[in-house]
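Figure 6 in text form: structure in, sequence out.
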């Protein structure tokens, strides 16, 4: 029984990709400033003063957020990224799961003004960085939408309902986060496997090329 219990626990705690992959893509590399909101997501402080985010927590949040997104109709999910390095992976993520995306400058009123051509009525908003995506965040709050956000060590969680702690400034980090989220959403739908996803979607193609 002890051996079986160990096997079950090891299966449950196995990361979606190796810890080394998360580290190589700087997913856990935070900032030199830490908000009080983010204290519980910090693993340790590096010698150079950078706060390192807890990899198992990030991994677990990717799983739970993928499951959450699958409780919504895909076209009712909206993903935004004003941050340059998040634009390509956010758009590819939205295309992969059938969601809407708004990358680059967010047109004010897109969630609140039906007269605009860009107007959309999503049921949930996913932001790449709550600080950079403030316009979309404010409009989602005004519209009563639940908000999921990728949050770095210096972010505040006000108005973010579900936080995904990760480096939301790095090119490789954002590519891996969105690549994993897309894979996990589609796995819940039984539309792909780890092997099929990796073969059809080389991770480097998800990186912004600015």
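Output sequence:
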């Amino acid at each position: 029984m002890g051996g079986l219990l160990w096997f079950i626990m090891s299966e449950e705690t196995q990361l979606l990709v190796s810890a080394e992959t998360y580290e190589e893509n700087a997913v856990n590399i935070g900032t030199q400033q830490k908000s009080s909101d983010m204290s519980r997501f910090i693993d340790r402080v590096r010698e150079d003063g950078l706060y390192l985010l807890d990899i198992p927590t990030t991994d677990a949040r990717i799983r739970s957020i993928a499951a959450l997104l699958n409780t919504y109709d895909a076209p009712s999910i909206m993903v935004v990224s004003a941050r340059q390095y998040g634009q390509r992976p956010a758009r590819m993520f939205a295309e992969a799961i059938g969601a809407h995306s708004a990358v680059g400058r967010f047109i004010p009123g897109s969630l609140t003004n039906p007269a605009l051509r860009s107007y959309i009525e999503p049921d949930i908003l996913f932001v790449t960085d709550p600080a950079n995506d403030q316009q979309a965040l404010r409009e989602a709050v005004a519209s009563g939408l639940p908000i999921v956000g990728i949050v770095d060590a210096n972010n505040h969680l006000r108005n973010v309902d579900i936080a995904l702690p990760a480096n939301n400034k790095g090119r490789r980090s954002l590519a891996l986060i969105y690549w994993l989220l897309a894979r996990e959403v589609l796995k819940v739908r039984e539309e792909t496997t780890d092997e099929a996803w990796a073969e059809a979607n080389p991770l480097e193609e998800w990186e912004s090329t600015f």
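Caption detail: Residues 1-12 have pLDDT under 50 and may be disordered.
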